[in-house]
Amino acid sequence: RAEKFAQTHGGRPVVIDRNGDLAPLLSAQPDALIDAVGPFQNYGGDALRVAQFCIDNAIHYLDLSDDAAFTQRISELDDAAIRAGVFVLSGASSAPALSASVVEALADGLDNIDTIDAAIIPGARSARGRSVIEAYLAQVGGPVRLYRGGVWRTQRAWSDRRIYQFPDGVKRAGRLIDAPDIHLFPQHFGARSVTFRAGVEFWALNAAVSFVAFARRRLGFRPSRRFAAFAEKAGAALALLGSDVGAMAVTVTGTRNARRVERRWRLIARNGDGPFIPGAAVRAVLRRSETVAPGARPCVGELSLAEMLQAMSDLPVEADTTEEDAPALFEHVLGPSWGALPSSVRRLHAVADMASHSGRARVTRGAGLIARLAAAVFRFPNAAEDAPVAIMIRRTPEGERWERNFNGRVFRSTLSPAPRAGHIRERFGLMTYEMELPVEDGAMRFPVRRGWFLGVPMPRWFLPKSESREYEADGRFCFDVGLYAPFGGGLIVRYQGWFAPDAEPPELPR
Asked: Which of 43, 234, 246, 435 shows a CA-CA span of 20 to 30 A to 383?
């Protein structure tokens, strides 16, 4: 293959074993070496030996690593690269080099960055190298550390499905995977949430990868290289059922003049040329190699978006950028009343991606039959004088998903805007309630106005009574939630307490 390439494009093929003797490389007298082999996750304990060899012989080095740990480790060679006067850049690929250049452009003029989300979803007919397939299969179903809502959290690779819309009606599903962006961008851009997703176009292939993730999570299955080879052949066999259109999206949300906005950059690659895009960063760097500072580092902040687009100008790609308002759910529902809330209450409800808070609560439970039945159905907390309480809020396309944890007892609900202004709907399983949100004297209340069971409206006399409010005391968020049974059935549950936001520094925990 190397000989055929050289006959068409020039150059001279040289056979080198990256795990063996690297001396034959010197016969080519290269100015720069680009490592596009991979999978970088499998390079082992002496993973940086090729980069070190380049430094020792005054050769510039770049790689297309998509492995977060490898890309971060390259900085270990920084002092040696500076002394040698060469640059050593890891991740000169779609991620993090291209995605970082897009984020820089989208963040221009924003006062702060709340979320960064990127997704790469190739077409079924786009060629995928064995190392890419091995890299994906090695992590699906396993743990991934992500910085979301100002806290490092652990989620499963190939979870948290999200649908992405692209021009010309192209719609693709992406799922969480590990990538250098997740670990580098929180600190570099000061973002409170960073996510990265990948996927494949054809639903059957997505389902197959999901099955591998399930097998790893439940059965401890680890795909072998032979399995990756089978997956490569299976994907090629199914390629004709899909298209040759690849897609990439980068979304940044942040505030500008106290208004939250969402900026989205989308790229479409046609004719099956999507696999050439990862090489554009290398091309852009080498076009101005004399201006690249020596040293070893991840390829983040090295290139502008204009340079990246110029490096792709001979490819059949199209890119666009959009901007729209992106208020939080409660900000959207409350409208002008949002500004009347105390700062701690606004902070808890200003969810751009995910947020968690912890505190203490006093819980009182009703003793009647209806109270006991409702508490069992909805998993309301047990009675306690002083219990630890935590809440996790996750933004969804429909609204928000709330998970409340009272000393290990968890109950969940889904919130969405109601058609009527100033009203919100909350769904607990088969039950949905609509509440008005009046803001009075610095507190927000939640009177129940309507309800449905399995979508069927309930009579007003069948609705529970809510005497609930959120307010601020001593500078922190406080809550007093009281639910009472219909028909004068008395107290169901009341919980009173406070929350403080969870927070961790953006540096990756060691």
From this structure: 435
pLDDT at 219: 83
Q: What is the pLDDT of residues 432-484, one digit of tens each?
A: 999 999 999 999 999 999 999 999 999 998 999 999 999 999 999 999 999 99
* C-beta separation of 163 from 128 below 8 A: no
Q: Give the span between the Cα atoms of 466 and 393, in whole angstroms.
A: 21
Mean pLDDT of 206-226: 83
DSSP 243: -
Report residue 473 as tokens: 């005391």
| Range 47-54, long-range pairs (CB < 8 A, 24+ positions) | 47/73, 48/73, 48/74, 48/76, 48/77, 49/18, 49/22, 50/18, 50/22, 51/77, 51/88, 51/90, 51/296, 52/77, 52/80, 53/22, 53/25, 54/86, 54/88
- Angle subtended at Cα 487 by Cα 481 and Cα 492, rounded to the nearest 5 degrees: 30
Cβ atoms of 127 and 206 closer than 8 Å? no
> What's the rounded Cα separation, in Å, for the pair 237 and 243?
13
| CA neighbor of 146 nearest in space, from 188, 99, 193, 114 | 193
State the average pLDDT for the chain: 92
| Contact of 243 with 123, CB cutoff 8 Å | yes
Q: Is the pTM of this model over 0.70?
A: yes
CA dist 235 and 123 (Å) reads 11
Question: What does residue 225 show for φ and ψ, rounded to 5 degrees?
Answer: -65, -35
Question: What would the pLDDT profile of 144-191 be if each residue is shown by its tens digit?
Answer: 999 999 999 999 999 999 999 998 888 999 999 999 999 999 999 999
Render the burial of 481-505: b for 16+ CB within 10 Å, e for the rest.
bbbbbbeebebbbbbebbbebbeee
Angle between helices 180-189 and 99-106 (to 10 degrees): 30
Distances (CA, A) of 418 to 217, 414, 449: 38, 12, 11
Angle of helix 225-238 versus helix 130-139 axis, rounded to 10: 110
So what's the pLDDT on residue 509? Answer: 47
